[in-house]
Design a protein that fits this description.
heterodimer, A: about 250 residues, Glutathione S-transferase Yfyf (Class Pi), Chain A, domain 2, 4-stranded mixed beta sheet, about 50% helix, B: alpha+beta
Chain lengths: ~250, ~290
């Protein structure tokens, strides 16, 4: 099996996949790309449908025996299946359902909110030529909105609410466990990856949430996450953002 | 609530044809005992149809609890006691409540005996999940915006406005409240509808390209991606005749007919009560030409 991971700073989806790769002890060539400059769209396989139309938008790409794979949670599921070491998902079908449902909520509600707030604080910047090469019309439109600094008050308020809701769910969930699904899993990775950078940006959501604070520290200190974070080029990788998934069009 | 007879028929058929201990398990689970699974669903369409068809493909008997979406059954106290978010479908397995149709399908595949609905190859499974996410979060909402504007909205609009407003107010999730209000009052903007139509057209091209490479969506075997996709696209040559027909999208039509030919699909769509799902019979036509569309 020949793996090459094209990744950005260890934050958001790049962090999920890097940590999953390390947790599963899989050898892979690591290739750094600047997601915040849209470099993903300059890669030779950028126009393949499953890359160009990835719902996750500016996330990492795993090249596995020639096939370009996107969407961090599903890449992590793949790595969990083919790698070694401790499983990153529970074995019991009901607990696996809980894991996939949890990740879906993060993917659909938390990730778009975090990406919007992150991009507002740390705007990505791509050249016009790169923007023009973006295949997905809706993704290109999101790039333009963000680079022009057009953020509606309604979207910002809604995004902060979604961060609050995610932290509330985590705090509640941790009342009975150390990790979100009992044992350390993809749900911890994906939740941490999107929320770590929200601590300074939506600080009130994390105030008086002792279990969440302890969990964030716990995830950060796992060997896989520590190793992924050690690849950071900047002092604070959680301040690296690029255009994320779309906010649900139905509100 | 009553046991779903067609699911039971499917179950018994499997029990009789499957060999050895496997068959006995089906027999014991399906006959003589009340099914331990109850599915709360609307029509075999979109999200409701996903776990319905997955259960029937697996040969799992279930109690069918029909909720009339157009009568707002899903926002009534009896159902909110099962699923406080008021979204359908929901599945009860023993004491446990499961929601989110795609995640329920993965559970159904893993928790029960029967044919595997996820491919054995890990990369194929990644592709199945990728396509399901595209359909659930990008293509599906565009289809349903069009569907709601032409079917759901007009179906309920004639009712007493006060009664409708009260029904909307009972919806637990604020975003669903907004969506329903828009659908009922026909307030989707021109730009929103245009964007949905753009996505549907592009989605059809993507599906055709994918199905020109493989017999099924995402892999070489029938999987949850196909169940998901059929629920989205079963009436495509009727709802989008100018974009999908035997001339323009032969692979989509081949794929839809192959899924419609499966006994589980027939049994599942037979549970439909509205004209919405009866559109599936378009697939019985041997040839659906582009000219027919115009």
């Amino acid at each position: 099996m020949n793996l090459a991971l094209y990744h950005g700073e260890p934050n958001g989806p790049s962090l999920t996949v890097l940590a999953a790769l390390f947790a599963k002890e899989l050898p892979a060539e690591l290739i750094r790309i600047d997601l915040a400059r849209g470099e993903r769209h300059t890669l030779p396989f950028a126009h393949e449908p499953l890359v160009a139309m990835s719902i996750e938008a500016e996330g990492p790409i795993l090249l596995a025996d020639g096939e370009a794979m996107t969407d961090s949670v599903f890449i992590a599921c793949y790595l969990d299946d083919v790698g070694r070491g401790v499983p990153l998902r529970p074995a019991d079908p009901y607990a696996r359902w809980e894991t996939m449902r949890w990740c879906r909520q993060i993917i659909e509600r938390t990730a778009p909110a975090a990406a919007l707030l992150g991009c507002r604080a740390y705007p990505p910047q791509a050249d016009e030529g790169v923007l023009e090469s973006i295949v997905s019309v809706d993704l290109r439109a999101r790039w333009r909105e963000i680079m022009a600094g057009r953020f509606s008050q309604e979207q910002l308020a809604d995004s902060r609410t979604k961060i609050h809701q995610a932290v509330e769910r985590i705090e509640e969930r941790l009342a009975e466990r150390e990790w979100l699904m009992g044992a350390f899993s993809i749900a911890d990775l994906e939740s941490f990856a999107w929320l770590a950078g929200m601590v300074p940006l939506v600080s009130e959501a994390f105030a008086a949430r002792p279990r969440t604070a302890a969990w964030l520290a716990r995830v950060r200190s796992t060997p896989a996450v520590t190793r992924a974070l050690s690849l950071a080029l900047r002092s604070d990788p959680s301040a690296s953002w690029s255009v994320g998934p779309e906010i649900n069009r139905w509100g | 609530m009553k046991p779903c007879p067609l699911a039971r028929v499917a179950q018994e058929r499997r029990a009789l044809t499957a060999g050895g201990a496997n068959g006995m398990q089906h027999l014991q689970r399906g006959i003589g005992l009340m099914p331990s699974v109850t599915l709360y669903h609307w029509e075999p369409n979109a999200n409701s149809g996903k776990p319905m068809l997955a259960l029937m493909e697996k040969g799992v008997a279930f109690n069918s609890h029909y909720l009339d979406l157009l009568n707002f059954d899903q926002h009534k106290p009896e159902y909110l006691a099962i699923n406080p978010q008021g979204t359908i479908p929901a599945m009860l397995h023993g004491e446990r409540v499961l929601t989110e149709s795609t995640a329920i399908m993965e559970y159904v595949d893993e928790a029960f005996e029967g044919p595997r609905l996820m491919p054995a190859d890990a990369k194929d499974r990644w592709r199945v999940r990728w396509w399901m996410k595209l359909m659930d979060q990008w293509l599906g909402p565009s289809f349903s915006m069009i569907g709601w504007s032409v079917f759901v909205g007009p179906s309920v609009r004639s009712r007493d406005p006060q009664e409708l407003e009260a029904a909307i107010e009972r919806i637990p999730l604020p975003e669903r409240r907004r969506a329903w209000r828009k659908a009922i009052t026909g307030q989707f903007s021109t730009e929103e509808m245009e964007e949905s139509r753009r996505r549907v057209a592009l989605g059809i091209r993507m599906l055709e390209q994918e199905l020109s490479q493989r017999p099924y969506l995402a892999s070489n075997q029938y999987s949850l991606a196909d169940i998901n996709g059929f629920n989205l696209a079963y009436a495509l040559p009727l709802s989008q005749p100018a974009l999908s027909n035997d001339e323009l999208t032969p692979n989509i039509l081949r794929w839809l007919r192959a899924i419609y030919a499966r006994p589980a699909t027939r049994a599942c769509w037979a549970l439909g009560r509205t004209n919405l799902v009866k559109r599936v019979t378009i697939l019985e036509q041997p040839h659906i030409g582009g000219g027919q569309a115009a």
